[in-house]
# Entry
Amino acid sequence: MKRLLLFLSVFFALFSVSAYAEEIPSSPPSNGVYDPRGYLNQDVVNEIGDLNKQWANTTLKPQIAVAVIDHLDSSIEEVSNRVARDWKVGFSETNNGILLVIAVKDRKIRTETSNNLSTLITDSQARVLNDAVKTDFRRGGYSAGVTSY
# Structure
């Protein structure tokens, strides 16, 4: 009986770990995309990196970052705010950054904008962007959704 209890304890401990949220790194990837499970195809990841490089040479210098995870460790708002603070999305001269956080298995999406960019992309406009990709996401088309975003 003790062995059965020990086995069950170990079994549940091992499999309950996979239900916990993953940790988003405290610094952004060089291409601006954190997607450890590969929901986005490489073309989309490359396109985001290329856009950021092109935009670095413009007057507004906007910058986009995307974090795609399975599960959240708290509310989508808390996670997005924490990642936006940690990653400091937006070039320092202009502070025009936008962060898209997608929690696939929690079925959540949120857009965070830097203070300067929030005058161009308001909260209501961010909701429109988020809503526009939900159809693609529901079909598993994360790359298509992010591209249209």
About this structure: Residues 2-17 form the longest helix (16 residues). The chain has five helices and four strands.
